[in-house]
Each structure stands twice: as C-alpha cells, then as structure tokens.
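Minimal example, chain plus coenzyme A.
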Amino acid sequence: MTQGITYRPPRPEELADCALVWHASVNDYMARLGHPLPPPVLEPAMRLGEHLLATDPGHFRVALKSAPGGRRERIVGFGIGLQREHVWFLSQLYVLPEEQHRGIGRALLSLVLPSAPEAGADGAADDMADGTKIARRPGVLATCTDSAQPISNALYGKLGIVARLPVFNLVGRPSSPSVLPTLPEGIEAIALEPPELVSHRNPAAPGKAELRQTIDAIDRDVLGYAHQSDHDFLRVQGRTGFLYRTSTGEPLGYGYSSQVGRFGPVALLDETLMAPVIGHLMRSIEPRGATSVWVPGANDRAMVAMLRAGLRIEGFPAMFCWTRPFAAFERYMPASLALL
Ligand SMILES: CC(C)(COP(=O)(O)OP(=O)(O)OC[C@H]1O[C@@H](n2cnc3c(N)ncnc32)[C@H](O)[C@@H]1OP(=O)(O)O)[C@@H](O)C(=O)NCCC(=O)NCCS
C-alpha cells in the first residue's frame, strides 16, 4: 500500500468528493487529447454511488491522503466493485491526476475485487435470491475501459481482465426513426413499471413476482446473471421498461429508455427482434433532448438500426474487458458503462 495513503469505505456525504475525483481524472487525459469534459454534473454519479454503496458496501473504498498541519484528510481516489451472482464487475476506479502512478489504483483494485474469483467452480448448486437453484459457475472479473486510456487497460490486463469488445456511444435525435421496423404481429409490449399499475390496467399482465422471475430468466440467459436491484434503481432513476412477449405469454426480452434520453438496458432472447424493439422504444418514449446509447460492437443489429435511424458515433469507443466470457453481447445493450 502507498505511503501516506489510507483506505476505508466512504461516508455517504463523501460521494460528491468521489464524483469530483472522477471528473478531474477523466478530464485530465481527455483535455490532453483535445476533448475536455464539460463542467461536472455530479448528481447522476452520486445517485449511482448511493445505489452501489447500498448493494455492495464491502466493495466500495476511498483512498485518503492526510494533509500536513492537522488539516482534514482528502479523498484522492476511489474504487467500486459490484458482485452480481458469479460476475464481479469493476464499476469505477479513479485517482486524482497528481496522485497517479504511485500504486493507489492498484491498491484500490485489490480491495474492491476478489483475487481468486474462479473459486466455486465445483459443480455444486447455488441458491438464488428468488429461490431457484442454478449450477455453480466459475467466477468472472469484468469491467469497461476507455480505449484512449493505456493505464487502466494495462492495470486490468495484468490480472487477465483483458479488453475484448468495443462499445460505441451513439448520440443524437433520430432523424429517420421511421426506418426502424415495428414489432412483428403477435408480439406485445407490457410496461414494466409500476407492476401493480400494469396489473390494474391489464388483468392479463403478469404479477410482480412472476414478472421478476421472467426478467431474471432473461438476464441469466443474455447477460449471464440476474440483477433485480439494478432494475429497481434504473426505474427509480426514470427509465421506463417493457417486457416483450408472444401473444401466448412466451417472454422474448425486455428494453428500457427514458425521457432524459438514456437508452437501455435491452436484453433479447431472440436477436432478430433487436431493430423492432429499438423502434418500439424510440416511438414509445420520446426524449426531451438527444438520445444516448452504448452499443457493443458484437450487437451489429443494434448498431445498424441506430445508425440508420440517424444517431451518430461520439468520441472514442469504450472496451468491455473480462477474464472469461459471461454475456451474449450480440443480444444486449447496457444501461451504462458503470452498471451493465
Ligand atoms: C486508471 C487509474 C485509476 C490507475 O491508477 P494509478 O494510481 O495511476 O495506477 P497505479 O500506479 O496503481 O498502476 C498503474 C499500472 O499501470 C502500468 N502502466 C501505466 N501505463 C502503462 C502502459 N502504457 N503500458 C503498460 N503498463 C502501464 C504501471 O506500470 C502500473 O503497473 P505496476 O503497478 O505493475 O507498475 C488512474 O490512472 C486514473 O484515474 N486514470 C484516469 C481515469 C480512468 O481511466 N479510470 C479507469 C476507468 S476504467
């Protein structure tokens, strides 16, 4: 551990300081590349910090540097790991520019991710929160990096968390949404939130527990793990979701969008529905401004649909990194790069 630096969980009132470290560390290298960040909007980062502090309190650490003369110590870095079933995802790792290259990032990483996630691959079954049993799977370490950032890619790469898949940020107001197909006949979209209201409006709609089990099953098939707590968080943050199913009730996937323009996550059991589902989400939820969506390179159907609808690629691609494959990214679009 680096001299003069201590590590501990954050206090809730320190989440704004963490968001400022995030902004300073990213702006430092982006400004050098000629793409300085706009002034920080701390609110979304703080809400995500609150959520992850609630779901993964043991895997959120701040690095503090003591100040001379008895002045208050200050946060110079932080890291957040989250565990969803067998997958450990590094959500965030940031160190202030003037404190980088001293081992703080590496130390934080060792505190928020396990060193041996493979443990558990012994063929036993795990009891899931919803009561189902699934075969125990080898643990996975994963994260998302910026392709313009050699330090993070090197730091994680040494642990086997190697960059393997580009993720593109597509942004804009769709100029030609009419090119996107409508949902095929016989496929219905059921609003996900709030389930009680949905059941009230449509007696044929699934109940809350049934809906959760359906979403979990879709997530395990597409993303590799269930993550209801993240769905709940996204809905509270204003994302509106739909379950897609056949007229006989067979689930086909789900998708979210929002009026503030944040699009995703989208998870489909049948990838041929990608363009019609994107079309349905764009027509059902009209954002007040631009739409912003993260599209994995493997999801060619989403990429083609979004580009043809008129969105444009913004900035450098990000990269998904993992120790071993865990998700079918050709059928998935994440909510963000910090919370899949
Ligand atoms: C990424 C970041 C958190 C790392 O923190 P840090 O305190 O600077 O990192 P450390 O000093 O602990 O370790 C950096 C490692 O990368 C290595 N490294 C740096 N540049 C490298 C390069 N071009 N090629 C190979 N290795 C490189 C260093 O040698 C060091 O490895 P070592 O410990 O084995 O010697 C920090 O640089 C940062 O905040 N960057 C900006 C924001 C960012 O990109 N965050 C990651 C989001 S996914």
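Residues 195-199 have pLDDT under 50 and may be disordered. The first strand starts at residue 5 and ends at 8.
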